């Protein structure tokens, strides 16, 4: 392809590119002699004008580079999630023989809860529907968890029967496990760390649900370990969202998941 025709094509394609925000991705195909174009929802873009799945922005698919002056709110959301999840995971794993997680209440309400919801709302204005849904949902989860452990709310004390309380908490965690599973299947074409974050978090919800329903200490510890792994993936994503060659001597790699296409 000659440089003249390439520039001409470039101009015609640029005219069709909507300005601002991310696109609602319906289908992704490739075009050009060297697959230099990416076709998304009927629009053709050069590869270098797009960014692929990247846990640092909590966006599992192709998206336009943002042209706003806002920062990366996903880095904040991932930090809120990872820090709160790590602390709770350590308690459930009985680190330092501490088995009461009440100290995480303030962290859950204000950092994992309020700050994470705000990060989700900022991602809403950035056009990142996935991050908006995930951060607002898990932020609300953490606020709910914190309120459960505040005696004045009377949520846990409303259950006189310990077995009924365990079953109720189990159902609560099962619902979040189902939600997490639906989010997890949207990351299978993303990156390895992206997938690992949601897989381990999803497994943790189901294992902790079993721990509450059965009273198994082993399940509780296993759930805590899974939370720690998920939190570690969240920290990886947080660093990948803020580190670059100008502020860090190292940057993390996206580790993309191999994609399989029908021939």
Automatic annotation (TrEMBL):
Annotated TM spans: 70-91, 103-124, 130-156, 168-186, 192-211, 223-243
Protein name: Ammonia transport protein, putative
Chief location: membrane
InterPro entries per the UniProt record, alphabetical: AceTr, Gpr1/Fun34/SatP-like
A Gene Ontology molecular function term of the record: acetate transmembrane transporter activity
Pfam families cross-referenced by the UniProt entry: Gpr1_Fun34_YaaH
Keyword annotations from UniProtKB, A to Z: Membrane, Transmembrane, Transmembrane helix
Family classification: Belongs to the acetate uptake transporter (AceTr) (TC 2.A.96) family.
Keyword presence, Transmembrane helix: yes
Subcellular location: Membrane
The organism's place on the tree of life at top rank: Eukaryota
Membrane topology: Multi-pass membrane protein
PANTHER family for the chain: ACCUMULATION OF DYADS PROTEIN 2-RELATED
Residue segments, region Disordered: 1-20
UniProt feature coiled coil, ranges: none
GO cellular component: plasma membrane
């Amino acid at each position: 392809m000659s440089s003249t025709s390439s520039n001409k094509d470039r101009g015609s394609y640029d005219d069709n590119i909507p300005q601002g925000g991310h696109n609602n991705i319906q289908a992704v195909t490739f075009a050009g002699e060297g697959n230099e174009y990416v076709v998304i929802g009927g629009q053709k873009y050069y590869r270098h004008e797009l960014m692929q799945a990247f846990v640092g922005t909590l966006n599992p698919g192709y998206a336009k580079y943002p042209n706003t002056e806002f920062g990366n709110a996903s880095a904040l959301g991932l930090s809120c999630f990872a820090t709160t999840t790590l602390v709770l995971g350590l308690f459930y794993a009985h680190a330092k023989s501490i088995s009461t997680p009440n100290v995480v209440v303030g962290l859950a309400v204000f950092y994992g809860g309020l700050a994470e919801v705000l990060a989700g709302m900022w991602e809403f204005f950035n056009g990142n529907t996935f991050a908006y849904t995930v951060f607002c949902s898990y932020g609300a989860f953490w606020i709910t968890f914190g309120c459960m452990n505040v005696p004045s709310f009377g949520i846990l004390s409303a259950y006189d029967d310990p077995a009924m309380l365990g079953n109720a908490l189990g159902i609560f965690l099962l619902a979040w496990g189902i939600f997490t599973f639906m989010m997890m299947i949207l990351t299978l074409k993303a990156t390895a760390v992206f997938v690992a974050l949601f897989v381990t978090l999803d497994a943790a919800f189901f294992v902790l649900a079993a721990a509450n329903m059965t009273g198994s200490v082993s399940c509780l510890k296993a759930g805590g370990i899974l939370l720690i792994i998920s939190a570690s993936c969240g920290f990886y994503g947080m660093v990948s969202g803020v580190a670059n060659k100008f502020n860090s001597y190292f940057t993390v790699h996206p580790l993309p998941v191999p994609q399989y296409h029908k021939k």
